């Protein structure tokens, strides 16, 4: 039966609202397959049962936030008819200017955002934004379904063409139609009403039927004609990224100790709570996979330990990506590079793997306390490359600096990269919804307008190196070693061990048993040592302290000192 894919049981309208069940199951089924959802134009949806059932959503081919509120249903022995109110909320500056003054008043502060998310609680307040009606009518035998939308062609509250109700809602109806066609595995019969009668000339009515007809044909002349359509107006046309089988790989970079792994943990939590499972590839500049352990057990992680990722990516990354593709259904991955990696080179190297992946966002983490205390670091070649190449700039540890200093840093970073999204992060948390929205806008720009797409082939010295040519003079050489700490140590011993390891230490991290504290996670950056209680799942890790710097000295119980070049 046609509706079994959405309601695999007998219909019982007397005990529950079958229309809301049908619509909710449609949204859930479509959005569980992210690639399918993207190809249909969906860019996120949020259900709410505060009051009546409601759903809010974004679409790729619209600047509006849409709302659907379930109003109720009627039924008889043959069919069930459900009715929903349709809302359209402008959120971009170009469309906000079209609103009346009373409607603009609802946007004066951010309070309207949670209200829209729980739309059914505030239907009276948002009455001016209700611009149409959606009907779902289906046979009790589940063999036929009718989807229709009624709205006005023009509305006196909206004088501009983009804000005409029929135009605003057409993209939503098209997405619903194609979604039902996807789950039913059949195209519907589409009709739009062309009214000849004067009172109905401003009405817009479109319907789609799937399976057996729900209504008996009416031969009475009502002064209107139904015109058949092949597809709904404003149907979304998927681009190459929507249809690509290869996963997107986001590049996460940032100098040593900037807080990349903490930010990554919280970003993954955000994605996974929305059932967007993401694979991770980590480049640990050393022998010990500490960052891989810190991510936890819920994420598939591939670790690359062959030195700096930007120097060996093409050879070592391909099998890791293929293993992730085989082991997880993720349609996106995050490559967390070592703090010594130049994202420019990483982007160029990923271009060589275009047969198995696509390049996503370049996200750079900038350490706020470090850059505020040492503004001269902004002129450092590597840090400058990480900032200028970013699509998203994450300013980390914002909770450790004052507002005025933070504002000055933001101004400086934006001067270096005007096109990147700036995200403020405190304690590793950030506005991941804003990052997600930016990603949706980014991917809908046809994969070509953002910072990480700009490339001067003449600067790609890494490709010359891979081809057998010598690295250009001045390429940085970093050293790494790991010190085994089999016995518990005093807290002050840890910093002594780090400082005695070489003449210039950039970074140290590890899992160490500290007397009177137990198993601890140790981080050392820019002369600052932090020690925190280790998670329970890290207790089984070996006790190592990995040190990165220049001029390192061998110590008892340490691995061999490795020298790595990083362009």
UniProtKB/TrEMBL annotation:
- Note the SUPFAM superfamilies from the entry: P-loop containing nucleoside triphosphate hydrolases
Location of the CobW/HypB/UreG nucleotide-binding domain: 249-420
From the record, give the transmembrane residue ranges: none
Q: GO CC terms for this protein? A: cytoplasm
- A Pfam family recorded for this sequence: cobW
Task: Outline the extent of the CobW C-terminal domain.
Answer: 479-556
Q: What does this protein do?
A: Zinc chaperone that directly transfers zinc cofactor to target proteins, thereby activating them. Zinc is transferred from the CXCC motif in the GTPase domain to the zinc binding site in target proteins in a process requiring GTP hydrolysis.
The protein depicted here goes by the name Cobalamin biosynthesis protein P47K
